[in-house]
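Whether sequence alone determines local backbone shape is best considered at the level of individual chains. When preparing material for the folding task, we compiled for one chain both its residues and its backbone structure tokens. No coordinates are needed to read the tokens, only the vocabulary itself. For completeness, the protein is quoted in full, as a sequence line and a line of structure tokens:
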Amino acid sequence: MDRIQARMERVLDETCRTLPYGGDHEVRAFIARKLADSALIGHSLLGELGIVARKALADYQQGRQFEPT
């Protein structure tokens, strides 16, 4: 699990790098929840997590953060 968590943290940091100050708590928490959900169902490769994180950021920025997945 440590490797998966390290991948999730790396992807989160890389995804939020373009945001002012690396993203605020709300957006980072939203993306982290999506990453955790993805890892729980077996999507734990770096590329898979990257896709999940980028989609989560796009959803958040478009104001869809409260839609069910």
